Input
Amino acid sequence: MEKVRKLLESKNIRPTYQRLKILKYLTESKEHPTVDRIYGVMKKDIPTISKTTVYNTLNSLVEAGVALPIIITGKEARFDSNVMPHHHFYCEKCGKILDLKVECEHFKKGSIHGHSIKELHGYYKGICKNCL
Output
């Protein structure tokens, strides 16, 4: 929890109990959870937490560069604490989102056709190996 506290403080985010718990869950989760999933988990430990608190916390984390929103289906945002450039694979059968390490030479160069690249967002859709 101390690592999470230091991360929040380094980004000038006040480390409230709710923020600490949400970020800790996000960093430990590999499922790229939705707001509803995070809220459901937090509600068990913090019965007084509101969905608005979860939304506001996630927005703060995204603005501070501590988390990334992932929007692949267009139906919902999922969240990832891995802010290093990487791609995602979305399984159309089970709905899981998996991290993929895919090298992108344009991103490494920092430009494409003379345009400066600041961020990388890449995803694939298909059927994961567990659902095949």
